């Protein structure tokens, strides 16, 4: 697989530029100009309900629903491609609908391929009667052996020349349950020497005694994807059937089926490159393994690239849509860096998330000259640039918590935060100076004794003296104790799909992908925050409420994303370096 391709993405500041049409939108615009579909644009999003949707599906959702939304007569259906009963489940159906809605889209019509089973059967009969499909008794292994290779043509099945009457009789009996699973299939009669292997008499129907989550035990034969998909598209009047590149070879069969039955219309299949994202996997087959082996806590684990996992992590739908917009659609496979997704999340939350204070690793600070037992309330804005978010009253007292990493007893030269004798600003409050370090019997620092300057209320010194650091803090007697979960990439490797011999993708799981902090201290305004509430803990990142303990009321937070912009760094490293022989210019 390709390395992350950072160049194909527009840079964050390209936004104002006019968006040019991607190749799919260009095709559609041309079709509209020529009146090919009478000005109609009908797309569909066709997930198989065999797992939860992931960020790759979000790309397809944004594309299909997005295109429909851009046209006056545009429609987009949601269709469950449920032709494989053994792997599918209503739990997945429900989650998919929830995720599409959460992404901000609504479908025009809701369909299930299984609703078309009767009609699909009739189309198969039509092919049989026309001598274009036959019942084949070869075993799956024999069919494979007869297929040939890329270099060698295949061999005709000995059952290929059955008469339409015989085929019809056998197909009806397949449906009636007269034959064992796997003993016969219905195949299209195309060309066993076709250069495209998919066209070598592909299977259209197989016998499978499996309970279907919608049709129950009604059907004993199930249509294959290639037969179902094109006909479902046609019956729904789809104009542009957008799918991912791995279906490029299947397009010939898509067209063959529609050309050889009396189909209501012939949609155009268009393929685009699927999304690959660094440090994760985007395949339901792999994601289901993570869930089933208990390597994550279910499909909605905040480390999962599933839409429900990202939602729980605090990724807003606006950010996912922006991300999909930025990566665009191409005809070439590439890998997108996770840092771009995180950039989009940060960009949106920066606009909307209130700023509050939370201390992840608390260190107690006692203000020795603050009147004992007293406290005061500071009126602080919730957002630096959006006054409409209002203010909250923040209590300050003589006992505080600061971040443990904001203090060093023996700091290096460039450490500007708190250390013995050093003065710093407490955000929105006062300047404090560290006077004394208290340690326990093991030598661990357990408390700092500081003094504050009452004249610096609000965070500025009237005498104009400066401090080099501003720390976040919470008042100890007012603080709420919270659990905070910090996340890192789920995989240590950039591309966990690219496994070394003898290894499995699960061998690359990052052991530090989840860190749970049980004794964090957050400001009291967060006491009533409910699940889904999003905020920035100043200096520590964006967080969202995961859950609230019904007994204790304790709030658990997920860190959505840190404040570090790795994407900017990547962008910078991609820019051309200035030439080196310009010393003279510099001297001027
Ligand atoms: P997976 O490989 O994860 O199982 P899939 O292609 O089998 O994915 P479907 O449920 O069939 O999953 O996908 C529904 C739609 O989403 C299809 O049109 C498919 O092409 C598209 N899709 C799936 N994965 C991606 C991806 N990574 N990027 C873009 N589109 C995707
Ligand atoms: Mg699929």
UniProtKB/TrEMBL annotation:
<comment type="similarity">
    <text>Belongs to the class-I aminoacyl-tRNA synthetase family.</text>
</comment>
<dbReference type="InterPro" id="IPR020056">
    <property type="entry name" value="Rbsml_bL25/Gln-tRNA_synth_N"/>
</dbReference>
<dbReference type="Pfam" id="PF03950">
    <property type="entry name" value="tRNA-synt_1c_C"/>
</dbReference>
<feature type="binding site">
    <location>
        <begin position="48"/>
        <end position="50"/>
    </location>
    <ligand>
        <name>ATP</name>
    </ligand>
</feature>
<keyword id="KW-0547">Nucleotide-binding</keyword>
<dbReference type="InterPro" id="IPR004514">
    <property type="entry name" value="Gln-tRNA-synth"/>
</dbReference>
<keyword id="KW-0648">Protein biosynthesis</keyword>
<keyword id="KW-0030">Aminoacyl-tRNA synthetase</keyword>
<keyword id="KW-0436">Ligase</keyword>
<dbReference type="InterPro" id="IPR020058">
    <property type="entry name" value="Glu/Gln-tRNA-synth_Ib_cat-dom"/>
</dbReference>
<dbReference type="InterPro" id="IPR020059">
    <property type="entry name" value="Glu/Gln-tRNA-synth_Ib_codon-bd"/>
</dbReference>
<feature type="domain" description="Glutamyl/glutaminyl-tRNA synthetase class Ib anti-codon binding">
    <location>
        <begin position="353"/>
        <end position="453"/>
    </location>
</feature>
<dbReference type="GO" id="GO:0006425">
    <property type="term" value="P:glutaminyl-tRNA aminoacylation"/>
</dbReference>
<keyword id="KW-0067">ATP-binding</keyword>
<feature type="domain" description="tRNA synthetases class I (E and Q) anti-codon binding">
    <location>
        <begin position="470"/>
        <end position="546"/>
    </location>
</feature>
<feature type="binding site">
    <location>
        <position position="244"/>
    </location>
    <ligand>
        <name>ATP</name>
    </ligand>
</feature>
<dbReference type="Pfam" id="PF00749">
    <property type="entry name" value="tRNA-synt_1c"/>
</dbReference>
<feature type="region of interest" description="Disordered">
    <location>
        <begin position="569"/>
        <end position="588"/>
    </location>
</feature>
<keyword id="KW-0963">Cytoplasm</keyword>
<feature type="binding site">
    <location>
        <begin position="282"/>
        <end position="284"/>
    </location>
    <ligand>
        <name>ATP</name>
    </ligand>
</feature>
<dbReference type="GO" id="GO:0006424">
    <property type="term" value="P:glutamyl-tRNA aminoacylation"/>
</dbReference>
<feature type="short sequence motif" description="'HIGH' region">
    <location>
        <begin position="47"/>
        <end position="57"/>
    </location>
</feature>
<protein>
    <recommendedName>
        <fullName>Glutamine--tRNA ligase</fullName>
        <ecNumber>6.1.1.18</ecNumber>
    </recommendedName>
</protein>
<dbReference type="InterPro" id="IPR000924">
    <property type="entry name" value="Glu/Gln-tRNA-synth"/>
</dbReference>
<feature type="binding site">
    <location>
        <begin position="54"/>
        <end position="60"/>
    </location>
    <ligand>
        <name>ATP</name>
    </ligand>
</feature>
<dbReference type="InterPro" id="IPR001412">
    <property type="entry name" value="aa-tRNA-synth_I_CS"/>
</dbReference>
<feature type="binding site">
    <location>
        <begin position="274"/>
        <end position="275"/>
    </location>
    <ligand>
        <name>ATP</name>
    </ligand>
</feature>
<dbReference type="GO" id="GO:0005829">
    <property type="term" value="C:cytosol"/>
</dbReference>
<feature type="binding site">
    <location>
        <position position="81"/>
    </location>
    <ligand>
        <name>L-glutamine</name>
    </ligand>
</feature>
<dbReference type="InterPro" id="IPR014729">
    <property type="entry name" value="Rossmann-like_a/b/a_fold"/>
</dbReference>
<dbReference type="GO" id="GO:0004819">
    <property type="term" value="F:glutamine-tRNA ligase activity"/>
</dbReference>
<dbReference type="InterPro" id="IPR050132">
    <property type="entry name" value="Gln/Glu-tRNA_Ligase"/>
</dbReference>
<feature type="short sequence motif" description="'KMSKS' region">
    <location>
        <begin position="281"/>
        <end position="285"/>
    </location>
</feature>
<dbReference type="InterPro" id="IPR022861">
    <property type="entry name" value="Gln_tRNA_ligase_bac"/>
</dbReference>
<feature type="compositionally biased region" description="Low complexity">
    <location>
        <begin position="569"/>
        <end position="579"/>
    </location>
</feature>
<feature type="binding site">
    <location>
        <position position="225"/>
    </location>
    <ligand>
        <name>L-glutamine</name>
    </ligand>
</feature>
<dbReference type="Pfam" id="PF20974">
    <property type="entry name" value="tRNA-synt_1c_C2"/>
</dbReference>
<dbReference type="InterPro" id="IPR049437">
    <property type="entry name" value="tRNA-synt_1c_C2"/>
</dbReference>
<dbReference type="GO" id="GO:0005524">
    <property type="term" value="F:ATP binding"/>
</dbReference>
<dbReference type="InterPro" id="IPR011035">
    <property type="entry name" value="Ribosomal_bL25/Gln-tRNA_synth"/>
</dbReference>
<feature type="domain" description="Glutamyl/glutaminyl-tRNA synthetase class Ib catalytic">
    <location>
        <begin position="40"/>
        <end position="350"/>
    </location>
</feature>
<comment type="subunit">
    <text>Monomer.</text>
</comment>
């Amino acid at each position: 697989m390709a390395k992350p391709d950072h160049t194909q993405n527009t840079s964050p500041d390209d936004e104002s530029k006019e968006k040019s049409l991607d190749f799919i939108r260009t095709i559609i615009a041309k079709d509209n100009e020529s009146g090919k579909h009478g000005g109609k644009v009908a797309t569909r999003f066709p997930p198989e309900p065999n797992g939860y949707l992931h960020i790759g599906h979000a790309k397809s959702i944004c594309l299909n629903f997005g295109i429909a939304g851009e046209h006056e007569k545009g429609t987009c259906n949601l269709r469950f491609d449920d032709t494989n009963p053994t792997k599918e489940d209503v739990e997945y159906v429900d989650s998919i609908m929830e995720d599409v809605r959460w992404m901000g889209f609504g479908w025009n019509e809701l369909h299930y391929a299984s609703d078309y089973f009767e009609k699909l059967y009739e189309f198969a009969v039509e092919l049989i009667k026309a001598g274009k499909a036959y019942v084949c008794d070869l075993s799956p292994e024999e069919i494979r052996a007869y297929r040939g290779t890329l270099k060698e043509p295949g061999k005709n099945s000995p059952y290929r020349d059955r008469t339409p009457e015989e085929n019809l009789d056998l197909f009806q009996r397949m449906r009636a349950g007269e034959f064992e699973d796997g003993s016969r299939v219905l195949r299209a009669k195309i060309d066993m020497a076709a250069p495209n292997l998919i066209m070598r008499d592909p299977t259209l129907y197989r016998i499978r005694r499996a309970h279907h989550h919608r049709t129950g035990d009604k059907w004993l034969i199930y249509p294959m994807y290639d037969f179902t998909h094109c006909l479902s598209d046609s019956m729904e009047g789809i104009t542009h059937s957008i799918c991912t590149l791995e279906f490029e070879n299947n397009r010939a069969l898509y067209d063959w089926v529609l050309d050889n039955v009396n189909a209501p219309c012939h949609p155009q299949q268009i393929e685009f490159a699927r999304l690959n994202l660094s440090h994760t996997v985007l395949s339901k087959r792999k994601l289901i393994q993570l869930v089933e082996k208990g390597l994550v806590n279910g499909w909605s684990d905040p480390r999962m690239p599933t839409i429900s996992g990202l939602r729980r992590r605090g990724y807003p739908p606006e950010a996912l849509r922006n991300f999909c917009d930025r990566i665009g659609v191409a005809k070439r496979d590439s890998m997108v860096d996770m840092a771009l997704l995180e950039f989009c999340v940060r960009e949106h939350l920066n606009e909307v998330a209130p700023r509050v204070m939370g201390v992840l690793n608390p260190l107690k600070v006692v203000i020795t000259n603050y009147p004992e037992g007293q406290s005061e309330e500071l009126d602080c804005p919730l957002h630096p640039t959006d006054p409409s978010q209002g203010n909250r009253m923040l209590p300050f007292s003589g006992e505080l918590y600061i971040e443990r990493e904001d203090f060093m007893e023996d700091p290096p030269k460039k450490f500007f935060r708190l250390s013995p004798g050093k003065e710093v600003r407490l955000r929105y409050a006062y300047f404090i100076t560290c006077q004394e370090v208290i340690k326990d019997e093991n030598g661990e620092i357990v408390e700092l004794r500081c003094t504050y300057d009452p004249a610096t209320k609000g965070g500025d010194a009237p005498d104009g003296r400066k401090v080099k650091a501003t720390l976040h803090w919470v008042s100890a007697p007012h603080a709420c104790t919270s659990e905070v979960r910090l996340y890192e990439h789920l995989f240590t490797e950039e591309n966990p799909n690219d496994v070394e011999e003898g290894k499995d993708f699960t061998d690359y799981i990052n052991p530090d992908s989840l860190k749970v902090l049980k004794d964090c201290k957050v400001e009291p305004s967060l006491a009533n925050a409910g699940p889904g509430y999003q905020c920035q803990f100043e200096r520590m990142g964006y967080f969202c409420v995961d859950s609230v303990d019904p007994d204790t009321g304790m709030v658990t937070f997920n860190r959505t994303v840190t404040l570090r912009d790795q994407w900017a760094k990547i962008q910078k490293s991609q820019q051309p370096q200035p030439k080196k022989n310009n010393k003279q210019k510099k001297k001027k």
